[in-house]
Fold this protein.
Amino acid sequence: MKRDFSLLVIAALASGSIGISACATRSLTSSGTGTSPNPASDVFACIRQEIKNAGFSQESYDESELRVTAHLYNEKTRRPDVRFRRLIDRISFDVDPASGTSTTTAVTAQASTFVELSTHRGPTEQQERTSETAKDAARSILGRCAPTSAEPRKP
């Protein structure tokens, strides 16, 4: 009887940990899509310009793959954690040129927010729920460069 009880406890703990890990894999990144009748190179140039206009700093870009990422440091937010340094909003765009029978350029945007902490190993980032600043910037850039946009999915 005692052995059966311990097997039940082990089975319950195992199934609980599987359930918890499944919940923890939920994405914190918001994403959206848009299309444009313009050529992919024009849409890519538009996105790079609008990133600057939105106040973000471009981190990287790849002209052959038509990808660009940018960040915005939020130095004004404060938290009651001595390790807290700042929030970092990140946006990225992938431009997919028209191909085959499609005559429109597709754009995928992703917005995310990270908290930067000071640790004994140096700065560490942890992702958290996407801020409205990052979501609004991604929506705005999609609206200007790929006007047929779908609303960003909520995490």
Remarks:
- The first strand starts at residue 30 and ends at 36.
- Helices lie at 2-24, 40-53, 132-145.
